[in-house]
Amino acid sequence: MTNIWCLxxxxxxxxxxxxxxxxxxxxxxxxxxxxxxxxFEQAPDADWVVEVFFAEKPEDAFVGEILKRGSLxxxxxxxxxxxxxxxxxxxxxxxxxxxxxxxxxxxAHDKNKARAGAVNLQIDAGQAFGTGKHETTAACLEVLDAxxxxxxxxxxxxxxxxxxxxxxxxHKVWPEAKVVASDIDPIAVxxxxxxxxxxxxxxxxxxxxxxxxxxxAADGLDDPAFTxxxxxxxxxxxxxxxPLIELSGDITAALADKATLVLSGLLGTQxxxxxEAYKARGxxxxxxxxxxxxxxxxxxxx
Length: 302
Fold this sequence. Notes:
The protein contains 9 helices and 14 strands. By secondary structure, it is α/β, with parallel strands linked by helices. The longest helix is centred in the first third of the chain and has 18 residues. Helix 4 runs parallel beside helix 5.
């Protein structure tokens, strides 16, 4: 018998996106990797099918808290165990390659589709967030593509790396840079390590003064391991609006003078409060990339 359980129903797209943010927030609060949420369109004017997957049957109180905080007490849904399958393989089959600027991201099942002249990244669906499919990751890759012709950073941080896709993108564009890929979730760090090998990246240790990608499981930027890496010429933080605001002081302090900052994981409705947190610390807004309801913001430290 499988231990995976699924909470399934239909919601408008905006409510599905709000639920996605809520699950990430609750995961951070509990110090746990959040349940996996997927949603897909049925027809242009219909609600979206929403599925929340739990690695094991959750406590009733936890499910009740999700429904209460999401104002979903009256939501018509199903909650049941999932048929035992290789769901990673099944989900990979549903992921088509993603093109963002010079970057072309695909799963192992599409590796024969790698494109000549593109920065090809093989990122498989798995336990860590970030396959390039989500709008926030794709938006960040588009920003990276634009920055490649404007800056040459010696030090780069991918904060909240997930699967390591942004760290790998930066490593491919600036192979002489020292890149750090950090995440609060140790599983994400292990996945990133694997993806560095799969994509022919150069791995290095934290504090090691040579080009390549170093990985670190850390909560924020207070870990002593960052001491030998800061300041950074480029920081990419694809997390959530709340943590972006909370970490605005630490992130700004970790930037070198004239450094570039890319922020994502926020909805268009959250742009104002996130920008204000960084402008209050002296950063200058350089613009944004929009993907659906999601944004990637670019700022510069004077």
